[in-house]
């Protein structure tokens, strides 16, 4: 009786340890792997880094117009890997809201793009530095004439940010001024991400500055 019982016990013990072994060794890693796979899928993010300068100026028609470039002989770049090409097409995909917070805005093709977005119904808001508003080839007056709201700081300190938020979902930030020299001359970087942790923080900052630079508060003109 005792012998049989202990044999049962031993067998039982063997069985449980076998099951435990299988669970720990074989099934657990499978479960963990699947779980982390699922997790990484949910956490999937767009993350792109762009570096300027580009070797030559990019054709804005090609990347930021509905009909593309229809010039018979276009001497501007159609290369999609250029930083400008990626920036233009990223901005061009804006559906509802474009928030731009930029120290210097003199690039005509970016001015065109922003005005076209505004005309197609996108709500565009621009914040810039007061000392840059009247700088030569500044796009700010042009944007305002087109009906775009543009606000600026009112201090001798710089509104030195350089970021844009597309549809409150995509953040573009970096050293990049919206100037032509920045696309084909300067060494500049841009980061594009849809990581909501960063997008939300920059959106909050934009709202904060937008309210702070309300012209009603300091009698300036928008
Ligand atoms: C970011 O983009 C990726 C790839 O398109 C997508 O799977 C993910 O859901 C997006 N995340 C957010 C927060 O929009
Ligand atoms: C491209 O063509 C325009 C005229 O269509 C000309 O003014 C410009 O200098 C040309 N640029 C280059 C880089 O060849
Ligand atoms: C862009 O934003 C990210 C996230 O906040 C930050 O880590 C990075 O330093 C910024 N880059 C520049 C050049 O401002
Ligand atoms: C931005 O561009 C302006 C005009 O090209 C230049 O004077 C300035 O140094 C640039 N500043 C920064 C910090 O990007
Ligand atoms: Zn072209």
TrEMBL record:
One GO BP annotation of this record: lipid catabolic process
Highest rank taxon of the organism: Eukaryota
Alphabetical list of SMART domains matching this protein: PLDc (SM00155)
Positions of the PLD phosphodiesterase domain: 155-182
A molecular function GO annotation: RNA endonuclease activity producing 5'-phosphomonoesters, hydrolytic mechanism
InterPro entries linked to this entry: PLD-like_dom (IPR025202), PLD_domain (IPR051406), PLipase_D/transphosphatidylase (IPR001736)
UniProt keyword Transcription, yes or no: no
Entry's family note: Belongs to the phospholipase D family. MitoPLD/Zucchini subfamily.
Name of the protein this chain belongs to: Mitochondrial cardiolipin hydrolase
Upper lineage: Eukaryota, Metazoa, Spiralia, Lophotrochozoa, Annelida
Gene encoding the protein: 20195232
């Amino acid at each position: 009786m005792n012998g049989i019982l202990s044999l049962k016990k031993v067998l039982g013990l063997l069985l449980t340890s076998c099951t435990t072994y299988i669970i720990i060794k074989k099934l657990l890693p499978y479960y963990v792997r699947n779980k982390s796979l699922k997790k990484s899928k949910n956490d999937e993010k767009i993350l792109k880094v762009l570096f300027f300068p580009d070797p030559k100026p990019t054709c804005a028609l090609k990347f930021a117009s509905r009909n593309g470039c229809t010039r018979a002989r276009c001497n501007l770049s159609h290369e999609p890997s250029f930083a400008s090409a990626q920036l233009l097409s990223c901005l061009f995909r804006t559906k509802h809201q474009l928030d731009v917070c930029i120290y210097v805005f003199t690039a005509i093709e970016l001015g065109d793009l922003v005005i076209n977005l505004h005309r197609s119904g996108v709500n565009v808001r621009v914040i810039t530095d007061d000392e840059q508003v009247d700088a030569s080839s500044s796009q700010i007056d042009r944007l305002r004439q087109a009906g775009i709201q543009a606000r600026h700081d009112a201090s001798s300190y710089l509104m030195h940010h350089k970021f844009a938020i597309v549809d409150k979902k995509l953040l573009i930030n970096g050293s990049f001024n919206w100037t032509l020299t920045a696309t084909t001359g300067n060494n500049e970087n841009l980061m594009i991400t849809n990581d909501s942790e960063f997008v939300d923080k920059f959106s909050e900052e934009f709202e904060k500055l937008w309210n702070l630079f309300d012209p009603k508060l300091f009698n300036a003109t928008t």
